[in-house]
Amino acid sequence: MIDLHYDVFGNKKLAGPQNxxxxxxxxVILVIFALAVxxxxxxxxxxxxxTRLEYNYDPWGxxxxxxxxxFRDAWIAVHIGExxxxxxxxxxxxxxCTVPIAAMAGYVFARYRNKITEVLFYVxxxxxxxxxxxxxxxxxxxxxxxxxxxxxxxxxxxMAAFGVxxxxxxxxxxxxxxxxxxxxxxxxxxxxxxxxxFQVMLPLAGPATVLAVLLVFMGAWSDYLLSLIMIxxxxxxxxxxxxxxxxxxxxxxxxxxxxxxxxxxxxPTILLYILxxxxxxRGTLAGALKG
Length: 291
Known about the structure:
It contains 13 helices and two strands. It has about 290 residues and is mainly alpha-helical.
């Protein structure tokens, strides 16, 4: 009896010996990447429920009793409340300055295609390939000259500048494959260019918008390098800077409190991902299929 299998296109093929080596290698690599992501998330739980004395005596042992005092102490010592407010302002500013501009630019580059818009699109796309580390010094000098250093707008405006090229490309791929008849019908009904965009086309790009809002928020919330360069006033420190400052000031002697602060700072992005992972997956797959 011949054992038949079907490929992804439904065609019959004979079953035979298969080389499992590449699959095993890929699986091992994916497991390593997964552990690299999960270990930093799991590691704080080994310390956060211990007292300082228990940690110093036996860092990797189990706590005698689960206590949540570390969370309270970390909240007070790190001034997490102020850090939350500053970081939230940065996230909202980054979203407000990135998503609308990228959506409108993506629509123009998708629907009004000519030599000029094609050249402009690739000029904007060049910004996506410029790493932020490459322009930190001129960025800090320019921000100091225009009075944006040590301000929250001076933090989220560069985030938006580096985010717009990528999200313009994503929106362009969405709008390019939407039926053009919808825009034509809207114009026949009397809708101008703004009405066609805001009332017809933008709602159809909902997956891209949700994906952009979620990922821009997560990126702004988790930012450390740009915040470290642009913010020197401790009153404006974001949550990541405050946690780092706590570790620099107290060292590893207060590891339970530091672990609690790290968990608190990571909790919003983790919770947001858990709640919105379906939208992230839907938007990513839709963008990949359309692109």
